[in-house]
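**User:** I keep going back and forth on a fold encoding question. It is easy to fool oneself when nobody else works the same problem. Could you pick a protein and write out its sequence and tokenised fold? Could you put it straight underneath, so I can go through it closely?

**Assistant:**
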Amino acid sequence: YEAHRDVSGRIAAVYHSVAQLVGARSDQIALLESATAAWQKAFTAIHHSRPFSSGDRILVSSSEYASNVLPIMQLAKSRGVRLEFIPDDEHGCVDVTAFANLLGDDVAAVVINHCPSQNGLINDVAAIGAALHAADSSAWYLVDACQSIGQLPVAAGEIGADFISATGRKYLRGPRGTGFLYASDRAIAELEPFPLDLHSATWQPDGFDVARGAVKFESWEKSYAAILGLGAAIDYALSCDIEALSTRIACLSQHARTGLDAISQVTVRDRGLSKSGIVTFTHGRIEAQTLVSLIREANINVSLSTPDYARVDFDSRAIAAVVRVSPHAYNTTAELDSLLE
């Protein structure tokens, strides 16, 4: 408690840093322990305030991360909610025109990832938000920006989402165990999180008062040391300029894709017209898991993505697994050439 009190001003400043990062107000920001925790806080608040029921449709991007799909599958099983995956366009992104044609009064929520973790596409989340606005839809719009925050400019006002969830540990390079949630004014005004605790509400003699602002989506217990680390990471990224980081990452990832394309037996698996810094590939003779092990033995950090991360995306392309390399702005072309070698 004493340590917390001594740095209370620095902790408060983290809200301002996050708000600056996503173009929002600090009272629209909640600090949580992960992107998944942030997303779940938003989703459960919707379900608590206006329970999903039989006949409700939830529209989801085909490349959506498993942690965002599994709760919807649970509701489909227990409550008859209809989970519908939005068709892709010719580039593999969410087809915005097809999405607009799916909208109706029975669409209760729209769940979109900005940048999937298992391929390099970038979904046009702003165009999806505009389609919702044009249709005067009351559907709740949730954007998972886990992979885009820190490598791409993310402007809440342009996206038009009710919620944007993100983590600190990926392109922001903050500590593991940190994340945040942006909540729109509509979400703050109309939704009540569940369950509440003594941080998100106050127990009164005749009931309880829910906290004002997005802080009501938080819980009491959190690592304030990690939160300070998140703030430091965001301030560093802002000082570097997100646009500059984005340009550098795009240059490096394109260098990797071009080099990988030139290697016999290697297939770059990224989709999308505009691509993120996530580069994925497979080899014609070597399984992805084996290839990851071999590359790591050369002290090069890569990871393995498997179908359980995004079943619809993997199954539609008949891919068993992919190798993922995610260069950041501090990497060099020489390092990527070592990967290619």
